[in-house]
Amino acid sequence: MDDERGSALLTDDIAVAVRTLRAGGLVAIPTETVYGLGADAENPGAIARVYAAKGRPTDHPLIVHLADAAAIDDGWSRDIPSWARLLAATCWPGPLTLVLRRGPRAGDHVTGGQLTVGLRVPAHPVAHAVLVAFGGGVAAPSANRFGRVSPTDAQHVLDELADVLEPGRDVVLLGGESRVGVESTIVDCTGPAPRLLRPGGIGVEEIEAVTGIDVVAADAAVRAPGTLAAHYAPSAEVVLVARDDDVRGRARVAPGPVALLAPAGVPTPDDVIRLASPTDSAEYARCLYAALREADDAGIRTVLAVPPSDHAPLAAAVLDRLRRAATGSAR
Fold first, then answer.
1. How many Cβ atoms sit within 10 Å of the Cβ of residue 197?
2. Are 172 and 9 in contact (CB under 8 A)?
3. Could you tell me the CA-to-CA distances from 51 to 35, 76, 152, 233 in Å, in that order?
4. Domains in the chain, please, with CATH?
5. Burial environment of residue 262 by CB neighbours within 10 A (0 to 12, 13 to 18, 19 or more)
6. Strand 185-188 relative to strand 195-198: parallel, antiparallel, unpaired?
7. How far apart are CA 85 and CA 108, in angstroms?
8. CA–CA separation, 257 vs 246, rounded Å?
9. What is the tens place of the pLDDT at every residue in 264-304?
């Protein structure tokens, strides 16, 4: 990354970000999950630049971010089940995306041609301030190359996209590190019961408690962000290792250099670089993507990843991301 170029892109000015969105530019926006690459959701030209910057297939839908739950009735969706409204009222702002039947404001350019749209109200003060001041929807997939590791701070965004973002036209909005660290839970709300499309910070038990309805298996007919088998992948090969497996034996035969990402208490074998030692699934989620980026920066060839062992919602989300990273990482 060119330091001068990166500095020209960075800002903490909400007004600058809003003007950029209104002019059709791109704004990397901090949220509590990850940083998103935002554009005016009703501007097809701006959305085309999001797809091009990420190298993202145009049939892969985007999540539209809104300022508050009331906005879902402002032309973004229709035929909303009462239980989906309960989820919005209870879990927004927060790391939950609802897939609903799309309204007239959600065009093919953000839905991937589907008759549904993913909507979310983020729980980050900077994102909220931008959305309130902008007054519309902001489509914002993660601010990284398609399929790669998501960014959880502004520097990650610059590392990924500084060569395609244009100073004077686009900006990266400063907002600190993402406190959740993995993407939102996605729930399909177009059927009689909630369908989990992607795990995240809102777990199945909470969804069932709010709605009073059992969550059912995902429907492959609905395309959603981050649900490809290979996703969230670094250049290093990610190898999942069960906690009771012989980590030391795996390290001996893995192509080196080798690094370990594992909960605290799992010992580090000799000649293995320790990436992180999270104490629970929440800490694991916060450090996951930064650790995978660190592995690539250090020239690691193999990352041995021991998933968290607790039963919190984020444990399922971390395991999901690790599985997809293991599928999509370099071989």
1. 21
2. yes
3. 16, 21, 20, 18
4. 3-211 (3.90.870.10), 237-328 (3.40.50.11030)
5. buried
6. antiparallel
7. 24
8. 18
9. 999 999 999 999 999 999 999 999 999 999 999 999 999 99
